[in-house]
Design a protein that fits this description.
Chain lengths: 208, 126
């Protein structure tokens, strides 16, 4: 790791010349957006913590009634593996390991992300079935908004991956695609990072 | 901004070190995640559980930033990226910490009286 980083995420490196330089400003701009996203998530974490008392629960079902640790662990595993799998994407772009390998890694990320979403939506449905809908209490509203917003980000990430697979197969791995894949990588790893906060504070710390 | 490329970097060697970095990040993240879940399921007092979970989360966030997002204090731009993170965290600490403090303080002042019987008799003894 002796190389100098110009922007967040695994850098393409100087062998990629124009794409590497283009990525510096583009990925940095995207990073600024992600930091504004971080502020939104942070404020949602704060409102979640504020509602986590008997008044915020408003007599509705609480964390002990609704949360399923096993399902949270499964979701965490899916997202962690999915995040690391993007390392395969970044490395196969950087070392030009061919289109097929690149698309394969992207598909692995998308499938793991979809697995995460499957269990998350399953949880949401069973929680709604147990009377834990967002309108029941302030705590439930903040829970649905925070976790739902993260889930929506993952969904957008999957759409983005599919769009990138389309672009790779039609236009090949050119400079534009490389820069976009660098941004997608930062986005994907960032979602993983937010999830660390969610599973630790929203689920685990609440259940102690 | 960047140092000139020496051209002596063997791509295969570099890939090996990057794969190693991803693998390290993955293993450490996995251990911290398992540790956090194990802390929840353990018999420790709940204050200890919360402390352990928070420490594991902070460490894992640092590992993610270092090994997956490749932010570090060295390097041209990446220092600015990290400063942006620290600035955002500073803003967040003010806004999120302030929200949480004000709301919990307000909750304590407004609802404690009606919640406990001990505080109630004080009102009529004027």
């Amino acid at each position: 790791m002796s190389e100098n980083g110009l922007y967040p995420g695994l850098n393409l490196g100087e062998a990629h010349d124009d794409a590497h330089l283009q990525a510096e400003s583009t990925v940095f701009g995207f990073w600024v957006f992600l930091m504004s996203d971080l502020i939104i998530f942070g404020i949602l974490f704060a409102s979640y913590a504020s509602y986590l008392d008997p008044i915020g629960l408003a007599g509705g079902p609480g964390p002990q009634d609704l949360f399923d640790v096993k399902s949270v662990a499964i979701q965490t595993a899916f997202l962690l593996f999915g995040g690391v799998a993007y390392g395969g994407v970044s490395l196969s772009v950087k070392y030009e390991q061919g289109r097929a390998k690149l698309i394969l890694w992207l598909l692995i990320c998308a499938v793991l992300g979809a697995g995460f979403l499957f269990f998350e939506i399953k949880d949401f449905i069973s929680q709604a079935g147990e009377g834990g809908t967002p309108q029941v209490s302030g705590w439930l509203s903040s829970y649905w908004l925070l976790v739902g917003l993260h889930g929506f980000h993952v969904f957008s990430g999957i759409l983005w991956i599919i769009a990138m697979i389309g672009q790779i197969s039609t236009r090949g791995v050119d400079d534009v695609v490389k820069v976009r894949l660098s941004m997608l990588g930062v986005f994907w790893h960032f979602l993983d990072l937010i999830w660390v906060g969610i599973f630790s504070f929203v689920f685990l710390a609440t259940l102690t | 901004m960047t140092k000139p490329n020496t051209g002596e970097l063997n791509p295969q060697e570099s890939a090996a070190s990057e794969i190693k970095s991803y693998a390290t990040g993955f293993i450490v993240s996995l251990l911290l995640t398992v540790g956090a879940f194990a802390a929840l399921l353990s018999d420790l007092p709940s204050t200890w559980k919360i402390v352990l979970i928070c420490v594991a989360a902070l460490l894992q966030i640092i590992v993610h930033m270092r090994n997956f997002l490749h932010l570090s204090f060295s390097g041209g731009q990446s220092r600015e990226d990290l400063l942006l993170v620290l600035f955002s965290v500073c803003l967040l600490a003010i806004m999120a910490g302030g929200t949480w403090y004000i709301m919990s303080d307000l909750g304590g002042r407004m609802h404690q009286a009606s919640g406990s019987d001990a505080a109630m008799p004080e009102a009529p003894t004027r």
